[in-house]
Amino acid sequence: DVKVTQSSRYLVKRTGEKVFLECVQDMDHENMFWYRQDPGLGLRLIYFSYDVKMKEKGDIPEGYSVSREKKERFSLILESASTNQTSMYLCASSPGLVEIPDTQYFGPGTRLTVL
Amino acid sequence: AQSVTQPDIHITVSEGASLELRCNYSYGATPYLFWYVQSPGQGLQLLLKYFSGDTLVQGIKGFEAEFKRSQSSFNLRKPSVHWSDAAEYFCAVGAGNSNDYKLSFGAGTTVTVRA
Q1: Can you tell me the distance from the alpha carbon of A97 to that of A30, in angstroms, rounded to the nearest whole number?
Q2: Which residues, other chains included, contact A104 with Cβ-Cβ below 8 Å and sequence gap of 6+?
Q3: CB of A50 within 8 Å of any CB in chain B?
Q4: Other C-beta atoms within 10 Å of A14: how many?
Q5: N or C: which end of chain A has fewer CB within 10 A?
Q6: Closest residue in B to A58 (Cα–Cα)
Q7: Taking Cα atoms as reference points, which of A5, A37, A43, A44 lies closest to residue A21?
Q8: Which of B51, B103, B107 sits opposite A41 (nearest CB)?
């Protein structure tokens, strides 16, 4: 089974802090994704990565950055946390071209509260 | 770009009754289609997926979905609901036949099961 783990289930931070959310997958997947989930809005893509050291902006990248130094690890960084970044953050990975359709597998999520 | 609409925000169903969740997508070519389920406080679990072939797709937990190209729909059904099916359900669409691995998610439908 594919396993996607996220470093924290719950996180409370203060406005202006730098926040790191870590995601690790154990299936040698090529692609990794970060989403935020808010009630009534579904999942919105923040950033994604198709390869190590590569990143592309999703639909709502403002206020976020990412890092992918190793294939299995994809980090989401909030440079200066703000209250409007309070949300559920979901990480996903997918194998890429080896599987059709390419299927995303999700971690358990991190519920971040910014005070 | 592709998009998804889930017209029903919330559905209440009695245990043992049938369930149908609606999903309408917008995409010019053959899409990849997915249904995910999210139990409270958890990540998303894949229920089923469709790309080609038989338009009636079987998934886990007794769910099935039917792809109707003429209606741009991919509705999810279950003949007899169990209390454990109470969750939020997300439909997602991906760009088939391309190297674009991004998914667009609907806003979700929350299912409540009453005894």
Answers
A1: 9
A2: A31, A33, A92, A93, A94, B34, B103
A3: yes
A4: 11
A5: N
A6: B102
A7: A5
A8: B107
A1 CB-near residues (< 8 Å, 6+ apart): none
Report residue B51's pLDDT band, with 50, 70 and 90 as the boundaries: confident
Digit-coded pLDDT (tens) for A43-99: 999 999 999 989 999 999 999 999 999 999 999 999 999 999 999 999 999 998 777
Size of chain A, expressed as the number of residues it contains: 115
Estimate to the nearest angstrom the gap between the alpha carbon of A47 and the chain centroid.
7
Rounded to the nearest angstrom, the gap between the alpha carbon of residue B113 and the centroid of all alpha carbons in its chain is 17
What is the identity of the amino acid at A113?
T
Q: Over 90: is that where the pLDDT of A105 sits?
A: yes
Task: Provide the residue count of chain B.
Answer: 115
Best of B44, B46, B49 to disrupt the A interface (most A CBs within 10 Å) is B44
User: What pLDDT score was predicted for residue A109?
Assistant: 95
For chain B, helix (H) and strand (E) counts, in that order, are 0, 12
Using left for φ > 0, alpha for ψ between -120 and 50, and beta otherwise, residue B7 falls in alpha
Structure tokens at B96: 């088939």
